[in-house]
Amino acid sequence: MINVRELQEVVSLMNESGIQKLHIEHDGTKVIIDKAGIPLEDTAVTEVKTEEVKAADAEQTPQDSMSVNAADNNEKQILSPMVGTFYAKPEADAGPFVQVGQTVERKDVVCVIEAMKLFNEVNAGMEGEVLEILVKDGDVVEFGQPLFTVKSH
User: Is this model's pTM higher than 0.90 or not?
Assistant: First the structure.
């Protein structure tokens, strides 16, 4: 049997690491902790600010003008909540969680990030249309790295 102190310690570690779902089996006791329905304090969504994009655009070539349009069209990015390996599909032979042009809801799973053999679901965190997938399946991602561009509704 798992004692309460050990369980509290596991929950604290989950909160610190950003892990969303955990299955534990110990001496015939099975515990499943799933925080997917609870919003994270550090949201994985950020707005693209018009001023920053226009300043960056002034210094870059014309091919980067899509960034200015992104700010004008209320586009946001879904960021990686942790360091790990990005997976666009739940299994190797399955279809992707989301595709460009698909509409997502706040709690929709858009990808999975594997960190230390644990698979962490990443929710959209907003409603909108997926405009761009910024990383490839199997890529290593950093904390705060943009994963998707979404036009919010």
Answer: no
